[in-house]
Design a protein that fits this description.
Layout lengths: L1 E6 L2 E8 L1 E4 L6 E4 L3 H15 L4 E5 L6 E7 H8 L10 H13 L1 E6 L4 E5 L1 E9 L8 E7 L1 H8 L8 H5 L4 H13 L8 E5 H7 L9 H14 L4 E11 L7 E11 L1 H26 L11 H22 L11
Helix pairs in contact: 1-2, 1-3, 6-8, 9-10
Length: 330
Amino acid sequence: KEEELEIEGKKLKISVTPARVKDSKTGKYLDYLPGLKEQKILKTLIKIASEESSDASFYGNSVSPYLVVTTTYHAIQKGIGLSSGKNKYNKGQIAKAIKILQNTNVTILDEQGIEISAPLLSSVVTLGKDLDDIKNNKALCIGLSPIFSKSIALGSFRLYNYQKDMESPDLLTSYLYSKLVHKFTYASNNREYSFMASSLLLEFPTLKKWKRFDKVLTKIEEAIKNLSSTVSKYEIDNRYLENGTSRKKLIDAKITIWGTDEFIKEQIISNAKKEKSVIDTQTLLEIKRPEQPENGSEKEFESYIKEAEEYNKNKDSIKATNIINNIFKE
């Protein structure tokens, strides 16, 4: 699947190679593209990584970092079920979704010719039984794609109300919520945000399957109404093409949105946290991991132990305040 997107004036070509996953019932291999379920599981993995008690770390360097998190199926179920109070997906569905994410490859090409190609999950390792889990689930060690890890490290993510996104009934609602989070960077109680429906078509090409523009607007308005706890009010100013007759052709619309007091408050807090978080994360990535000597002397091993202790001490002190811990609203 190939799409051309334009986000904030930047044109991107995105190619998605579907995952080939074995069907548990028929034994046949089928092609799958990620959907709402896979997106929610991916965001849940980032949420789990943000928790203070999590076993998550950045590896690599500031040029090519990747985030690794250790978790269980039960923890993923619990995370997704926060918004509804129940497990939305069973273990089998989560396992299949993880396979789809691991085997879906995404290639992004920008106008400068810079190309990034990577699976949505870079690695998935089953560690065995997790004795601390009452359901004795298998622990998973999951590496996030460099695409997401780099964005996290550079502070592209903002303070984010995880539960609100988990309540999204479709991908468009989820995308629109994320768009508002990233756009309300100068939030205030009387500030609105406007965008053209035609620009949303470029950012979210799935809308193009509705050929009539009034149908596109209907879907956008439905998504806005789904965000009742985020949007206090909205206005749609239709734009028509005058053709010299009594019938006017609907060609675009200006959509203006005002955030709720709660949403504005979240964004103001996010603005205050972001700058410090980016600095902390960059420092974390620049801490050099000591290399263990293979056949060194006793003195070399003693030196390595001291360096490793210092490395862990520095890493832990910075990790407590890095960007990961500031992505989601508590």
